[in-house]
UniProtKB/TrEMBL annotation:
Transmembrane segments: none annotated. The gene is accB_2. It comes from the Bacteria. Residues 70-141 form the Lipoyl-binding domain. Residues 39-63 are annotated as: Disordered. Residues 40-54 have a biased composition (Polar residues). InterPro entries: Biotin_lipoyl (IPR000089), Single_hybrid_motif (IPR011053). Pfam families: Biotin_lipoyl (PF00364). This is Biotin carboxyl carrier protein of acetyl-CoA carboxylase. Gene3D superfamilies: 2.40.50.100.
Length: 142
């Protein structure tokens, strides 16, 4: 079993995503974590999938620039609240800041918080108890 603090790992991923680094590898004892930044890719003369996606984004400017998605970092079931008696974390129309908990993913008998990496107003929220895969869209922000 790996001995990793999940909050420190999230912080590392956020820092890499906001930087110009392409990848980072951190080794502590027997544990090695490698993080690759999908947002920053090397520029080449050959078009890549990211370049094609960027070109498509420019044709759909109004929607692509105004909406941000918060993706699931886990596989499991999306929970809009930590338990049955608590209020939902976010609803359509709520304003979310970077670092706010937008929901939870129940995975392997654990309730794992999902933290927003973007700020904005919630335009849609996935249904409570919906099955999610890694990178599924949980919440969109406008």
């Amino acid at each position: 079993m790996l001995n990793i603090d999940i909050e420190q790992l999230r912080t590392l991923v956020r820092l890499i995503a906001q930087s110009q680094l392409v990848s980072v590898e951190v080794t502590v004892g027997d544990t090695c974590v490698s993080v690759k930044n999908r947002a920053n890719h090397a520029t080449t003369d050959t078009p890549t999938a990211n370049t094609v996606a960027d070109q498509q984004t420019t044709t759909r400017q109004p929607q692509a620039q105004t909406e941000l998605a918060i993706h699931s970092p886990y596989v499991g079931r999306f929970k809009t609240a930590p338990d049955a008696i608590s209020l939902t974390c976010v609803q359509v129309g709520d304003h979310v800041q970077v670092g706010d908990t937008i929901g939870y993913v129940a995975s392997l008998a654990r309730l794992l918080p999902v933290v927003s990496e973007h700020a904005g107003t919630v335009t849609s929220v996935l249904d409570h108890d919906a099955r999610v895969e890694y990178d599924s869209v949980l919440v969109t922000l406008g």
